[in-house]
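Milestone M4 deliverable, item 7.
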Amino acid sequence: MKSSGAGNVHRGFICVVLAAVLWASAGSAAKFLFLNGMSPAQLVQLRTTIGSFVLALWLGSRQPAALRVATGDIWKIALLGVSIAATQFTYYFAISKIQVAAAILLQYQAPVFVALFALIFTRERLTVVIALALSGALIGCYLLVGAYKLDLLHMNREGIAGGLASALCFAWYSVSSSYALRRYTPWAVVFFSFLGAAFIWNVFHPPLEAFSQPGSAWEWWWVIFISIFGTVFAFWFYTTGISFIGPTRASITATLEPITAGLISYCFLGESLELLQISGALIVIAAVVSLQVGRRNPARAE
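Output delivered:
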């Protein structure tokens, strides 16, 4: 993990914020595609296949050395692909069983798992600042997604399990990618992660079947936008952020995504937020700012 000064820490936070903005934008685009008949499984197949193909072309022409993986690292890199594929499947599975707001809330328990993984595997200290920011982010997300309206105790158990599994898988990607970054560039880590995910989604889903789904140039535009900006660049920003500020701080900062999604919905879809939801957004922002203010030294390599 990089540790060359406060400037890199600032860049790390900026990278994760940009990732959150791109993920939120891609989420709104995905909503348009779902309303036009595309299934979540088809979209995941498209975004992982197109994303890994574009990255293969770019890295092959610009950084061919980045495509080489040490034999002993192949299984570790493969697990990154599994974690990405599993994150997306379990999240969409949760949506199919419970309300979207509940699925989002469950997925954003990921920072808790990241903190636990980092504590166990990288021995990253859980400082008071991180603990308070983590609590604030969770409380803020609870209010922001309107979970106070949901009967969480009587929801479909399979859906709840799927949402928590999504959080667990994303947390695993966050922590395991920090290990991969010790030997490989962020571009390489993202490429191999999505190459593995694309392979899985073309095995467990009819190979390339989703490419026959988009029926117009407008739909293809949003597919390309999601695949390039909402996938390749978003995960590159997030993975780069991890290299600067570590997986725990990065995952907490990424909880800005639902705030961005809310702003996009307000500006373009005419949706509004209740007072409690706005309060939740402010709490999340305060949590992320506290991480930045309380961070005097850059993330140290473990």
